Amino acid sequence: MPTPASEATPDTEPKDDQEIPVTVEEEEATGGETVDNVEFEEAIEEGDVEETVSSVEEVISKIASLKYPTDPAHNQAFDLKCNVSYVKMCVVRGPCQPILRFPQNTEGRSFQKMWYENKPWLEYSPEKDSMYCFSCRLFLNEQKYSNKSAWRVAGVNNWKRGLDKMQEHADSEAHLTSMERWNTYKKNALQAAFEVSDVQGKAIREQEIQRNREILT
User: Among candidates 185, 178, 131, 181, which has minimal Cα distance to 159?
Assistant: First the structure.
């Protein structure tokens, strides 16, 4: 099996300010994507997106049509973590939790799909072969959290201590804060949807009443 270049040594966790080399795993097939989407993915890998898209909204529209639209790699490539449209797209699509043949490191270890269970925040990036936290990368952007970048930016791929790392993160104050914000965002979106529905329903009822009045007169 291929060994990802981004794999940290088994007993050494990447530091927050340490850059991790990235290896893009080549897909055996396009997965039904159009030629334009394949070209856009190639542009992402080559860092040449300015000639491909003309605005942030167009970037988000293109990302939304990719095979893994919420892959954290896109978040980093375009610095979209604070963009309202990007956050909305990610929340609607949900965390990146693909089920595939995860690449193994030199010790034969890899990400495990069972780790997704009871962890709605857990993400796996096919491009970076690393774990990320959905809520932290989208809802935790203050300067005071800048040193908590492993689960937001660098990614975690110490598979030997994978379960320990996830538990440590799940118990952290920063993660609990981001989860509360994510839940609040979802509740507000749901409330807004109900409010729109109520307004539309009221308008329909008023129109029906007016039609009935016209019939009776």
Answer: 131
Predicted structure pTM score: 0.65
Rounding to the nearest 10 degrees, give the CA dihedral for residues 177, 181, 182, 188: 160
Which residue shows structure tokens 């449209």? 85
Query: Is pLDDT of 158 > 90?
Result: yes
* C-alpha of 55 from chain center: 20
Report how far residue 121's alpha carbon sits from residue 118's, in angstroms, rounded to the nearest whole number. 9
Q: Which pair of tokens denotes residue 80?
A: 């979209």
The DSSP secondary structure of 98-112, one letter per residue, reads --S-PPP-TTS----
H or E element: which one contains 133? strand 130-133
Q: Work out the average pLDDT over 186-206.
A: 62
In the chain, domain spans: 35-176
Task: Quote the CA–CA distance of 133 and 155 in Å, as a whole number.
Answer: 9
